[in-house]
Predict the 3D structure of the following.
Amino acid sequence: MIRSTISGLPSVNAFKRNATGFGLRREAKRHAALIGADEVFKSGVAAALCHRSPKSRAFLARERARIARAMLADCRFCAHDCGVNRVAGENGLCHAGAEARFFSAQIEVSDELELIPTFAVALSGCDLRCDFCITGASSWNPRAGTGFDTHAMAAKARAALQGSARTIMVLGGEPTIHLPAALEFVSLLPDTARLIWKTNAHGSAQAHELLDGMFDVWLADFKFGNDTCAQRLAKVSDYVRGVEENLRWANEHSELIIRHLLMPGHLDCCWQPVAEWLAGNLPGVKVNLRSGFWPAWQAARHAELQRTVSGPESARAVDLAQRLGLNLIP
Amino acid sequence: MKKHRTKKNCESSGESQVSELLILPDGQILVHNLTPAFAGLLHELNPDDEHISSRVTRHMSPHL
């Protein structure tokens, strides 16, 4: 269930306190006016959302998709905070344009047991550059795959729900960089559908405002336990602070499941600090410790990532989780 | 280690479904993007594997 409902959007006053983070450029304003979303620049994202009377998730998603599309002209969806005009063809670190593409859409049963079978839609492109990414070719390339026709995909998703699927999962790459398309997709789905947002937890405060109440479950990665590993393996700086901020927010605004992909040679530097932080800061949160690492994509660049996780490593990781009282789920 | 990519036609849409698996020297199989069809196949190969059987059960009883 959605813990924070659509009526739980931030108040206008709450937005004003944070308004400095929403400075949008002139190009963005021009683009917004063209598509009829200029109110977002007059009063801010939350205010633009709040003064309407919300009727349903689909209704809100449609409104927010419109706002998100305007924000592409000054893109700050992720914590990289690039501020590029994607509508005009400028590239941020994710290299994504204004239109989303997808590289996979199918029913899958490899995720958490409580979520499967899920109709999983994987959008191309990502704001991180994990060398071990198992879908690296498509995740690093926002032009991979097929154009994302939201109406056609929503029809497939609805058909999947009529069949065996229990949930619909939006993932990537990283779906945060494609918020307009993701929200448009949500706007075409039944309000009763159980929606999963599979994310790297590297989103911005702006992204959170747009996503609040849209997805029933946040399935969020906590990949690295320190900034050095994050920089070396995923070329991202200030990783830990940003992820912790994202996870705290997600825990307050939706159901949350945190994933950690156990990596060979990274128990002490990554899993242990992640596990200790979870135990101390989000006690009871659902944690899925994944031990099925395989040396995909460009993992071979790193000596320790050229193998799978050993049995003893996996056992030690589980033992640590149990000693810390983590709520491990299959 | 051997990496395999499997495709199966999706009955409803005509599009293909893809699972990827890695077979380790010790016989372990790691799977990415496991589809129900492939889970069923793996279950047939080893009905005693709890990891797979729980996922096949979920697929067959989606509203549990």
